[in-house]
Amino acid sequence: MGVWLVDADVLATSRFAISPLIETIDVLGVLATADPQLWERDWLARHHPTFRARVAADPFSTSLISTALAGSWMPDFIGRPPEAAEVSFDTELARLRATPADTARADLAVAISGPLPAELDIPDPAGAVAGLLAWVWDHTLRRDWSRRRRLYQADIVSRTAAISQRGWAAAISGLSPKVRWLVAGRLLINHHDRPPRHLLGAELIFIPSSVRHGRTAWDLPARYALVYPASGLLADPGAHAAPAALQRLLGPTRAGILRRLDQPASTTHLVALTGLALGTVGTHLRILLDTHLVERRRSGATVLYYRTPLGEQLLGETTT
Question: pTM score, two decimals?
Answer without folding.
Answer: 0.79
